[in-house]
Amino acid sequence: MSRFGMLPEALLKDKGLRPNEKLVLAVLLFHRNQKTGVCYPGLKRISEYTGLSRRTVQRSLAGLEAKGRIITRRRKTQEGDWDTNLYTVGGWCQSDTTYGQSDTTYGQIDTRGGVNLTPGWCQDGAQTYEINKREEQKIQPVQKPLENPPLNRGSSIDISSSSKCVLRQNREGKTADHEAKIKTAFEVFWGCYPKRQGKKAALKAFAEHFPEGLSGRTLDDRLQNLCGQAVLYAASVEGAEPKYIKNPANWLRDADPDDEALVEVEVLAREDGEPA
User: Fold this and answer.
1) What string of DSSP letters covers 190-236?
2) Would strands 92-93 and 86-89 be described as parallel, antiparallel, or unpaired?
């Protein structure tokens, strides 16, 4: 008897995900423990289920983590050997009030008591992050602001505007730091590529390989891969006329940042204190 699983419409309509990322996320949802939100299928199994290569699966998992759809944790066996990664992933929450209901997710058993969840797309564990949040906002009563808010001791003041300003400043600060890191990494790549043309367009194409949210290690790995590929390409076109050397922006659009190149390149992008 074949097993089957249901996919949330929110996943199928998610415009922020690439087709391969949707396939990989669907497999994670199929293996996901409905109560805990975790699963641990290996790369081989994900590749078999999706029909994607191991490298494409790795690239899709990195993209899902960068976009906040999953959280990846490494784990070890009782003997201390590295085991398959553990993935925390949201899902489609449904009301389940049956005590002791077993989770029917393939390979995952959970006999804890039932939970009562509002249906929706869950980003992390039990509660919906976006859909339910919008539903909550719909039923929030409209509160008329006080014309003269009290300033006596013990009285409360609405600081939502200030909070939003701080949050916006924090986001802008993180974005600025990320952009500065990408520009630094790009200069390393620019020094490896055999053709200096269209630097602005090349920077834009380069930045597309480094979405905000990537870990320092992934950023370093991708930088080293791209620089290594650039060095190998430079060696392959050495002595060729400039017109036969690809424009750097076009080359970057066709490059695979997760394709390892066995060339030693100095890494400058990792922040101090981040693991190697």
Assistant:
1) HHHSS----HHHHHHHHHTTS-TT--HHHHHHHHHHHHHHHHHHHHH
2) unpaired
Reference 38, options 24, 28, 46, 48; nearest CA is 28
Cα separation of 190 and 196, whole Å?
8
Amino acid in position 200: K
pLDDT, mean of residues 163-188: 72
Does 147 reside within a domain?
A: no
What is the torsion angle, in degrees rounded to the nearest 10, for the CA atoms of residue 105, residue 111, residue 112 and residue 117? 30
Residue 193 in any domain: the answer is yes
- CATH value at residue 29: 1.10.10.10
Give the chain's domain count. 2
**183 in the same domain as 112:** no
- Phi, psi for 42 (deg, rounded to 5): -80, 165
Do 183 and 114 reside in the same domain of the chain? no
pLDDT tens readout for residues 237-250: 888 898 899 999 99
